[in-house]
Amino acid sequence: MDVRELAAQARLGRPRAVARLISLVENAAENIAENMAGNAAGPGGGGGVEGGGTNHVLREVMADLATGAARPYTARVIGLTGAPGVGKSTSTGMLIRAFRRRGSRVGVLAVDPSSPFTGGALLGDRVRMQEHATDPEVFIRSMSSRGHLGGLAWATPQALRVLEAAGCEVILVETVGVGQAEVDVARLADTTVVILAPGMGDGVQAAKAGILEVADVLVVNKADRDGVQSTVRELRNMTGLAEPAWRPPIVTTVASREEGADDLMAVLDKHQAYLEESGEGRRRRLARARDEIEAIALARLRSRFAGLHGDRLDALAARLLDAGTDPYTAADDLIAALR
């Protein structure tokens, strides 16, 4: 089955076609990440964006999905992030059930850290969400970062487009809140939910990591544990400094028992209404579209740059070292060679 047939099947919501398309864009994105890290094989080589099959595959997938599909960036994208052990996957499962009760088709992208040996996802979110495996209106996919943040930045927006074309009205993106991941999910999501748990020092860590800067909603899960009130109080003090237009509300849940599900859905709906009424939703979608275009353009330029013969760069470096030029003039010479 070629890409065009896969895209047609994906638009009909066929799970196997959706899975194969996401695999295509994920593998292509890995090649792009390697290229952006300086490992490109040069023009026409390897999986470079300008040469090889990578650019062609992504172009073909996106073009065929766009044929007859809904307008892009119309699905409701909710990002969930937090430290390991706070109950993100359990919370994701709770939200899947809540949106399914409303009749929504739901897509889930669970972005896992990867095994250094196999490149595969370690957390196995799909295993923990098996109850939804037989629901044709739910599509769950674990995506491995494979050690390439650049590849993740490419693959996840494209996977969102695949799920959107497949008719998913709500897409949940779950990431481990370590490093850059929580910031990345905020750039992709309409609403970012930061999940914490009492007794884990999450409040202080969240402030240090700057997670509160990207949170639209704060969830204190495992609220049946000791220390929940002090965690909520600490977070409330921190959010008091937030922008008055939208202060992140704090919701307590026990996701394993579905406690707090209605409260969380009400807060998510309130934020969705705020996005629509204030124009913030369109601003965020414009930023996502801008990021996507910029990432493609920069990757192409990087590919062309990597394709230049090293002799030219070495010669310019030698001239700079011998005071025969300045770095700005040398850079101008290099850029001129790209034209």
Your description of this structure?
One of its GO terms (molecular function) is GTP binding. Residues 74-278 form the AAA+ ATPase domain. It holds the Pfam family MeaB. It comes from Microbispora triticiradicis. Keywords: Chaperone, GTP-binding, Hydrolase, Nucleotide-binding. Helix content is 52%, strand content 12%. It is an alpha/beta fold and 339 residues long. Residues 38-52, 115-126 and 147-151 have low confidence and may be disordered. α12 packs antiparallel against α13 (327-336). The longest helix has 27 residues, at 280-306. The radius of gyration is 22 Å and the shape is globular. The protein has 2 domains: 73-292, Rossmann fold (3-Layer(aba) Sandwich); 294-336, no CATH class. It has a 7-stranded parallel beta sheet with strand order 3-2-4-1-5-6-7, with helices on both faces. It starts with a helix and ends with a helix. The chain contains 13 helices and 7 strands.
Q: Identify the CATH homologous superfamily of the largest domain.
A: P-loop containing nucleotide triphosphate hydrolases
Spatial strand order of the main sheet: 3-2-4-1-5-6-7
Strand content: 5-15%
**Number of helices, where a helix is a run of at least 4 consecutive DSSP H or I residues:** 13
What CATH calls the topology of the largest domain is: Rossmann fold
Q: What best-fitting shape do the alpha-carbon axes yield?
A: globular
Low-confidence stretches: 38-52, 115-126, 147-151
Instruction: State the order of secondary-structure elements, H for helix, E for strand.
Output: HHHEHEHEHEHEHEHEHHHH
> First CA to last CA: what distance?
38 Å
- Tell me the helix content: 40-55%
Q: Biggest β-sheet: count, sense, barrel?
A: 7 strands, parallel
Structural class: alpha/beta
Rounded Rg: 22 Å
Oligomeric state of the chains present here: single chain
